Amino acid sequence: MSDQHVDGTKIKKTRPIENPIGKNLSVTVSLPRTIEIRMVDASTLEDYEFMFFITSIFASATAGFLSAFAQDVSKLYLLVVTIILFIVTLLFLWYTVRKRNILNRKTKKIKLKVESEIIQEGD
Q: How many domains does the chain have?
C-alpha cells in the first residue's frame, strides 16, 4: 500500500454505462395456489419454549451427574442427586409435552389463496 495521498479530482472520469442485461432479464417466481399460515397463542408458545429450555438444562445436569457417578461409584450421593434430577426432568418433560398439546389445540390455520398474476415490466 502506498502512503501517498490521491487527489480525486485528478482521476480520469468515464461515462457510466447501462446494465447490458438489464432490459433482457426476466424473473419468474412460482407460488403455490394456497399458502397456509399457522397462528399460535404467543403466551403459550413462550411457556412451551421456556419449559423446553428448562427441560434440556435438567436433562444435561442429569447426564452430568450420572457420568460423575459412573466414574466413581463409591460416591452414592451422586447417584441420589442423579435420581432426583431425573425425576424432576421427567416432570418438566411431562409439563413441556402438555404445553405443546395446548399449543397445538390453540393453533388456528389460515389458508390464503393466490389468485392473481402480477406482471411488472421494467422502468
A: 1
Q: Give residue-wise pLDDT tens across range 13-46.
A: 788 777 777 667 777 777 788 888 888 888 888 9
Spatial separation of the C-alpha atoms in residues 90 and 39, rounded to whole Å: 29
Residue 119 within any structural domain of the chain: no
Whole domain around residue 91: which residue ranges? 33-113
Residues 118, 63: contact at Cβ < 8 Å? no
With a threshold of 0.70, does the pTM exceed it? no
**Helix then strand then coil, % of the chain, to nearest 5:** 50, 10, 40
What is the Cβ-side half-sphere exposure of residue 101, based on CA atoms within 13 angstroms? 6
**Is residue 66 assigned to a domain?**
yes
On whether residue 37 sits in a domain, the answer given is yes
3-state class of 115 per DSSP?
coil
In a domain, 11, yes or no: no
